[in-house]
Amino acid sequence: MEIPQSTLNLIFISITFVVYIVIAVRSRAVSTKEYYVAGGGVSPLANGMATAADWMSAATFISMAGTVAISGFDASRFLMGWTGGFVLLTMLMVPFLRKFNKATVPDFIGDRYYSRTARALAVMCAIFICMTYIMGQMRGVGLVFSQLFGISITAGVISGAVIVLIYAGLGGMKGITYTQVAQYTVMAFSYTLPAIFIAMALTGNVIPQLGLIGNYTADGTAVPFFAKLNAINTELGFAEYTSGKLSTINMFCITAALMCGTAGLPHVIVRFFTVKDVKAVRKSACWTLGFIAVIYLTAPAIGAFSRVNLIEKLHESSYAEAPYWFKEFEKTEQMAWVDKNNDGCIQYFGPGKSEAGTYSVFQGKGPTYPDSSAPPEQLVGQHGQRLLANKADLSNPNELYFGNDIMVMANPYMAALPPWVIALLMAGCIAAALSTAAGLLLVLSTSISHDLMKKIIKPELTDKEEVNLARFASFVALAVAAYFGINPPSAFIAQTVAFAFGLAASSFFPTLLMGIFSTRVNRAGAIAGMTSGIVFTSGYIVYFQFLGAPESQYLFGITPEGIGSIGMLINFVVTFAVSSLTKPPPKHIAEMVAEIRTPSSKKTSINNFEI
């Protein structure tokens, strides 16, 4: 008897959830050291897997390949930025921060710049960055649950929040670490197996990456895969898949902002405080890069394969005979169809299609259609009314609408893969969102309980009180994140993701880098630099993305997605200028910075790790 897809999904996800919770309960933190840094004795291999899981969020696992599928070459900015940022992080940051022997990024900033104000500013940055990310993860969990089980997004978000609270709130970093090892294993298999199946079907090659640069063989002929992909794109009015549409300066600035923002992410930095010593940090970083490469080298292949599958399966197909999965994605409003020419078929065209001029834009109550007197609502496929409500662009001949984020989830359906492979992929999607949400939640709770309460407001807190406060902060932060996951403001997540990377690039990255490699940068310079970088970056993004300023006013043509790179330069310049005009740091601070950078043959004792 064939097991329904929904049942398989439930079985696979339930098994993984049970594993996560059992690991978290068995690894429950009982001290501040275990709660914040897992006791400081995690092996490099385990920490490498945990860091990779923490780093690869729902945005990486689900959205990146979808963006590659739609944007083609331009999407390489995410691959270069995020991967390059991790290299910067592991080469220039974490070995020195680990040698400093403090638990958090605000800890380093507060002590290095001998300032409670600098510490408080760092706490605010950490809270904002992490809250922005965790909102996105909760929304992702809700969407996946909704798609899988036919439940509401609200129920999906709440379910995910409960799971995260159990193994993050109770287990702390110790529980999260070993849970993320299991989650990485699920993600790696669920991401690569579908790619292998699809590569064999489209290219006859068992290795997806080699299939991507090999020949397309699915139609019985053998043509270069990229030639096939470029041809089907241009025939439908899209630009060539391998062509770039972003300007050089904008591409550079976006990549730089993503790279430097990545190197300043507090929830990734804190992972390297969980290993025994600096030598273990370097080993852990090597393992992490290897584990990340498994996903990042596969994403371009998945994106390209899904692009071919989408066009081959849906373009010019009859809506009445559309695949069952298309109707399922319609129900959750991840895909929609508008029959603009009233022929009952699904046409997928790009903006370059010559017929685009024959369709009028919104005027009055709605668009008009040639050769059809039917009102717009009768031309929209099942569950597609949101297109009219949201005033989607109905002025061109394209009739197929979908979100980038759905491509990874839809790809195995389009390729007609075995049901168990689809179920495994869905378990991987959930693991990606939950693993990052847990890491972000820990940084949020740590920033509030340790950096704000213990270090600034109430220094007399006991270890037990601090851990309990961290767990309560986890609950509050997760409740807020769940609320915005259920009720996001219009385009809130999409608009603030760029702000989060820009904030990290323009605040944490320069401050940490100068704090490690310069003995002259002082308290006044760091505070002035962080403030100016944040104000400029946030003001630019709010002005264009929230207030609707025209794109013609972009500074040097740089979009808000890349403005963090300019904010970063402003931070560097202001910090050095103010530091040169004010008193140098105290002698003990200069000696501390020199000691951080000095290689030592002695292993750092975890017993001396300061919490």
What does this structure look like?
This protein is mostly helical. It has two domains: 5-307 and 418-608, Sodium/glucose cotransporter; 335-402, no CATH class. The protein is 67% helix and 2% strand. It has helices spanning 5-26, 32-37, 44-55, 58-71, 76-100, 105-112, 116-149, 153-170, 172-203, 208-212, 225-235, 248-263, 266-269, 278-296, 299-314, 324-331, 376-379, 385-389, 407-414, 419-457, 463-486, 492-506, 508-517, 523-546, 564-581, 587-597, and strands at 215-216, 223-224, 317-318, 335-337, 345-346, 400-402. The protein has a two-stranded antiparallel sheet with strand order 1-2. Strands 3-5 form a two-stranded antiparallel ribbon. Strands 4-6 form a two-stranded antiparallel sheet. Helix 7 (116-149) crosses helix 8 (153-170). The protein starts with a helix and ends in a 14-residue tail after the last helix.
Biggest sheet features: 2 strands, antiparallel
Tally of structural domains: 2
Shape category? globular
CATH superfamily of the largest domain: Sodium/glucose cotransporter
Gap between N and C termini = 56 Å
